[in-house]
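re the bet — no i am not wrong, look at it urself. input seq straight from the record:
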Amino acid sequence: MSTPVERLGVDELRTLFLFESLDADKLDFLAERGRVERQPAGTPIYTEGEPATCFYVLLSGTVAMSRRVHGDDLDVIRTEQRGVYAGATQAYLGEQVDQVYVNSLRAISDVELFVLPAETFAQAMRGWFPMAMHLLEGLFFGMRNIQTIVGERERLVALGALSAGLTHELNNPAAAAVRATAALRDRVAGMRHKLAMIADGRLDGAQLHDLVKFQDDAVRRAAAAPVLSALAAADAEDLVSDWLDEHGVRGGWELAPALVAGGLDVAWLEELAGTVADRDLETALRWLTYTVDTEQLMREIDDTVTRISGLVHAAKQYSQLDRSPHRIVDVHELLDATLTMLQGKIPPGVRVVKEYDRTLPAIPAYAAELNQVWTNLIDNALGAMAGTGTLTLRTSGDGERVVVEVADTGPGIAPEIRPRIFEPFFTTKPVGEGTGLGLDISYRIVVNKHRGDIRVESRPGDTRFQVLLPLRDS
């Protein structure tokens, strides 16, 4: 024998704020098709991700709504307000969206609920409120489309800013390489000219052989020359310049800086003077100075080209354009690539501290999208510090998760706005400076796409965003 269905009377339906303005016919429609359910404390009423089959209205008791974050149920609302509703709230959109529960609801105490089948709720909404339906559909899909368009625009703006920063970073070493190449060309030309003068017959083979030995030694010394302080370099240059003047070398003050930078001191010059005749000393010295200059310029070119190569590698690492979207990644490489791309935006007054746990394993992830998360968090931290402070990037382990923390020493996030920071379009920046989508995008990348979690702790002088990522795919 089946259990009779308990209905809710029209008069009681009218006491619920959701239905208080409906006429008698509409209330009769709901009363005939709805039912009353009672659930004991601790009972799940519906579960996130399951097909959305019912629309629920609370009559009495206390319920809690939760969202699933990395396998954990996070309570977002707890209420005992009569008339609050949940469940198949998007049933009126039909097949235009996936009809699943977007959250979970459970009974905290014994509860009584008015339950409508999702089809009935959708039928009532479409039939009774056609104008409201058009407005709701427009609002729902319009906001979603706006969010997508603005999000793409924000990505383009961020990409433009990063490209400008990368161009600036590339320009410095590229210009240095061009200058060094031009100077190198002049030095090589001068070396050829001096070599012709040395080899015009005034030196025999043994002397030329000794001079080449001095050239090799000068190259070795230049490669290992220590960097002197300004005061120490000036003192050394004075000693070398005086020695050159005493030995009749013209323009000794011009040669002294290059010789000292190459690690060539007075003792080395004395040894050279004992090898060549006085008349050939200046020519030999200028030839050897060109050698030192050439070595230093080649080292400068090597440094600048290495810098350019490093920037290109960081750009490839950041964009991940030549790699599979989902792969095993080292979060430290991603963080370093993002820092390199943002280098032009980091003010001189901001100190960057990296506290990496290098024992952490690589994880499966969408690397390019994680780089977008790091970009948003670092950019927000820099903005919060207003040009002065400490930016800290920290990694650690938390059981089956990797934790990446971006911390700043800014003024902190006010407690009253902290619950809203992950909302779409919410921003504390002045009009025109922020879209309010950076943290929303970051949340969706971390939570929805990676099944991870993102948290924030904030007080004046210490704000920390923590991104928790699983060690393996769920």
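see?? The chain has twelve helices and 15 strands. told u. also The radius of gyration is 37 Å. so pay up
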